[in-house]
Specification:
Helix content is about 55%, strand content about 0%. With about 80 residues, the chain is mostly helical. It folds into 2 domains: about 1-50; about 55-83, no CATH class.
């Protein structure tokens, strides 16, 4: 069995990214958010695996997320997280 061509792998990569983006749009718009957490985790891992990083620039979606997260202070000692 021969290895997939670079073009085939690039096409598959693009399809995975597009499918994830479409699924997230659909899930976010759905009345019931069933499976959204799992889908977000898959998207997060896909981005991580592809070394995609984003700066939390004020006003950007990542910046808005960072601002939201600060409303929920995290203290590992209080939350039972072990290091």
């Amino acid at each position: 069995m021969s290895a997939a061509s670079k073009k085939a792998l690039e096409d598959l990569h693009a399809k995975v990214a597009t499918t994830l983006a479409d699924a997230l749009d659909e899930a976010a718009g759905a009345e019931e958010k069933k499976g959204l957490a799992a889908l977000l985790n898959v998207a997060r891992q896909f981005l991580k695996d592809n070394n995609i990083e984003a700066a939390a620039v004020p006003g950007s979606p990542t910046g808005q997320l960072a601002e939201q997260v600060t409303k929920y202070p995290f203290n590992p000692a209080e939350d039972g997280v072990r290091h």
